[in-house]
Amino acid sequence: MVLSIGGMSYRQMQKSRMSSLLSAPFAVLFVAGAINGYGQSSAIRSGSVEVGGFVGASYGIDKFHPMAGGNITYALKNRIVLPYFEYSYFPGIPHQGVLNVGGGQTLTQNYTLAFSDVHGGVHVRIPIAEKPIVPYLVFGVGTMIYPSRTDTFSGTIGSGSTAQPVNQMVPVPGGSDFAINGGVGLRYYIGQTGTYGFRGEAKFYRIMDGSFTGTTFGKVEFGFFIQLH
């Protein structure tokens, strides 16, 4: 995205990168669940609806940032494919802005931007692990919505006798970008009925189209759900 302001051009540049989502403890839990539940019946009920909330963290170019959200999932008759709809709020995904001020000189600004993630997709149950621990794969597509803002660039351009301070405010409109995501998760069903449970999930996001095209970041979340029939 390039904006022209007073002869200066502003380019929004993204330098987010994905961290390693599958930490050793999460991977160990995933494998342990598969071994422990092999050959048992599934706690997922055909035609059931799961509703739950979650909290977690996203990871961009510098450090973890908190996030939260909720989702609703429906179990098809085969209990393997579970379509879902999800909303997540990311209060701070790191980015870097660059202001071209002419003469080959630029000013940079590091900042965080809030995103609202609205998407749908499927949970695909891995049948080797069953009741009460159910691992699954997750794939989703949707949109990342971000608000308008004003970026402020401060610095000095030139050198010696030609040096001069610059303090430029650049308005940037909000919008929404198409994004995809994918990862793995675990459900743990409590008790004999499996009405209640906990869910952990780790996945990556990549923005495919829009102002933040190419931005990639990871998310790890944990939450509680209720299985309704």
Write a structural description.
The chain has one helix at 24-37; strands at residues 2-5, 8-13, 49-59, 64-74, 81-102, 105-125, 133-146, 149-157, 164-172, 175-190, 196-209, 216-228. The protein is mainly β and 229 residues long.
Summary, kept brief:
The chain is mostly beta strands. It is built from one helix and twelve strands, in the order E-E-H-E-E-E-E-E-E-E-E-E-E. An eight-stranded antiparallel beta barrel has the order 3-4-5-6-7-10-11-12. It has a two-stranded antiparallel sheet with strand order 8-9.
List keywords for this structure.
229 residues; mainly beta; Porin; eight-stranded antiparallel barrel; two-stranded antiparallel ribbon; 12 strands; 6% helix; elongated; disordered N terminus
Tell me what the CATH architecture is: Beta Barrel
Mean pLDDT equals 77
Q: In CATH's first tier, which class applies?
A: Mainly Beta
Unreliable stretches (pLDDT < 50, length at least 5) are 1-40
Let me know the largest β-sheet: 8 strands, antiparallel, barrel
Q: Which structural category do the helix and sheet elements fall into?
A: mainly beta
- Give helix and strand order, one letter per element, not per position: EEHEEEEEEEEEE
Our measurement of the CA-to-CA distance between the termini, rounded to an integer number of angstroms, reads: 47 Å
Oligomer: single chain
Strand order of the largest sheet: 3-4-5-6-7-10-11-12
What would you call the shape?
elongated
